[in-house]
Specification:
The structure is a single chain. Helices cover 32% and strands 26% of the residues. It contains 8 helices and 14 strands. The longest helix is centred in the N-terminal third of the chain and has 26 residues. It folds into 4 domains: 50 residues, no CATH class; 81 residues; 70 residues, GMP Synthetase, Chain A, domain 3; 87 residues, no CATH class. It has a 6-stranded antiparallel β-sheet with strand order 7-3-4-6-1-8, with no helix packed on it. The protein has a 3-stranded mixed β-sheet with strand order 9-10-11, covered by helices on one side. The two termini are 55 Å apart.
Amino acid sequence: MKTAEEIFDEMLETFQGFAGYGLNAGGDMALRMRAAAEEIADAYAAAEDVRAQSFPQTAGGEYLDRHALMRGLVRAAARKATGSLTFAAPETVSAAITVPAGTVCMTSAGLRFETTEEGVIPAGARTCTVAAECQEAGAAGNIGAGLVTFLTRAPVGVDSCRNDAAFSGGADEESDEKLRSRVLSSFRRLPNGANAAYYEQEAMAVEGVEAAVVTPRAFGIGTVKVTVASASGAPTSALLAAVRERLEAAREICVDVTVAAPTVKSVNVTVKVETENGYDAASVRSAVAAAIASFFSGGLLGKSVTLAELGRIVYAVPGVGNYRFLSPTQDFAAGQTELPVAGTVTVEAWS
C-alpha cells in the first residue's frame, strides 16, 4: 500500500516526464497534486480494508461476525459470573431479617456483586446465603472465595457479607481470534449431517455450551456420545437437557445420541508469590488466586493443564515479581472426556 507522500512523488515525476519541466513544490499545481495524493492514499487504505475484511483469515469485528453467520456460527456473548453471598447479623436475631434482591456487595478492588433473589435470616439464626451474580459480564467476575467483603448499603440488621465459595461462569465476549478459529475449523472439518464435526457444531450452537467432544460409536455401531461443558465447568442438568433436545431433532435416523457431562478432575494449585515493591502483597495474592480460578473453565474439556500455562497466568498479574509452584509438580494430562477444574487454590507469600 502506497503512502500519500509516495503517490505525490510519483505524480511529480510523471508530470515532469510529460511536461519536460518540474513543478514548484509550493505552487498551485503542486498543492493540487498533493491534495489528490491524499485522497488516492485514502482510497488505497479503503481498498486494503475491503481486502482484509473479505476473508475470515483477516476479517475482524462485525465483518468476522458475518463470515461466521455464513457458517452457521454466532459469536459467544459475554456472561456474568454467578455464585452466592452469605449475609450475617451481629448476633442471633429474634425476628426474621429480609435481605432484598438487588443488594450490592463489593470486593476490595471495587468489583460489584448483587443478589438475584430475596433472602431471609430466620429468627433464631444469624446468617443466610443468597444467590448472586456479578453486575458486569466478563471473566473478571470469576473470583475466589472470601473476596467479597463490603456492603454498599447494608440491609437493616445486617452488618457483614462474604462469599464462602468462588464465583464462576463469567466469560468475556468471544474474541476475534477464538471466533476466527471456529470459522476456519468449520471449513477444515466440514459437517455433513453424520460426522463428528456435525454433532459438535450442533452441540456448540446451544447457548451456554463452552466446549463439546464427540465420540463416534461410543457404545457400538449406531451410537454417538457427545460430552459437553459449560463456561463454569460441569454443565447443569438443564443445559444437558437442552443439548439432548437439539441433538434428538438433528441426529441421523437409527442413531442413538447420548449427551453426558465430562469426568471432573480436580487440580489443586499452591503457589508462592513474591510481590514487587509498591504493591500491596495481600491484594496481589488475591488477584493471583482469581486469575487461576478464572483459567479453569469449560474450555479446558479434554485439554491438558501445563505448568508453563499456569506460570504465564500468575506472572501476568501486576505486582508479581516471582513465583514458585508447590503443586502441581508436573503437567496434568486430561483424557478426551475429562475436564480439569480448580480444586483448592492457595497463594502464599514468598519465603
